[in-house]
Amino acid sequence: MTLADREWRLISEEDRDGPMQMALEEVAAETAANGGPRTVRAYQWSPSTLSMGYRQDAGSVDWEFAESEGITVTRRQTGGGGIYHDEHADISYSIVAPADELPGDLMDCYEVLCEPILSAFHAMGVDAEFVPEEHPAIHEPACYLRALHPAHDITVDGRKISGNAQYRTRDAVIQHGSLSYALAPDAHLGVFVDPGIDAERFRERVTNIHEEAGISRDDAVEALEDALAEWCDARVGEWTDDELEAARELADEKYATDDWTRERTAPTN
Hints:
By secondary structure, the protein is an alpha/beta fold. Helix content is 35%, strand content 24%. The protein is built from 10 helices and 11 strands. It has helices spanning 18-33, 63-68, 106-113, 115-124, 185-190, 199-205, 209-213, 217-232, 241-255, 258-263, and strands spanning 8-16, 38-45, 49-52, 72-75, 83-85, 90-98, 129-130, 153-156, 159-168, 172-180, 235-236. The chain has an 8-stranded mixed beta sheet, with helices on both faces. It has a 3-stranded mixed beta sheet with strand order 4-3-5. α2 (63-68) links the parallel β3 and β4 (72-75). α1 crosses α9 (241-255) and α4 packs across α8. The radius of gyration is 17 Å and the shape is globular.
């Protein structure tokens, strides 16, 4: 049985704040684990958001800068460095499915779940591939400036254009990722206390869809959604009322709180 033999839904790009986007992924995992549809989706962070890596030190964030610029800060369930998700310059996606339907080996699972992402880039006219070899870190707290890894970092001629990460609940796998549509280096660096580099050095390490292919953001999102849907034969769907209610509660109690964002302390049930 292939992935396409299962029930998948595509949820088209929605703009929501960071805590809600992260809560929806947890809820989607519960839905899939309980026999409901698996989910693929594209999404937009609104307002612009810094998503901290799971183990990232809150002291690495310039909280005053984020507040002054209207940038939301939350913490992901996945590791790695922080990612500045600009409302326009970032395109994000997630794939959620039961764990027993995907490879148990992490590297094999990345290879399977990144297939539609690479297909999307090629459909956009972007010659993207997994980085062929590791590159050293430039700035550890920032995901796009950390060491590049062949398993999950996607590049164009050695410049990063997408980062991808996974985490597992007891019964489900969640992979999410960021595709760089355009660059906003001043904000991307400004959300960190000491980025250690300037915008010019940032541009040497990071590229983007608009620079590589010259297409509109809407066309890039469409290519991503088409690739996700084709990969698993997903039908266009939507969140249920129960899922949205559960996600709002989870966002309020976890992802929007200082306990989680600054201390990594999750609420207890």
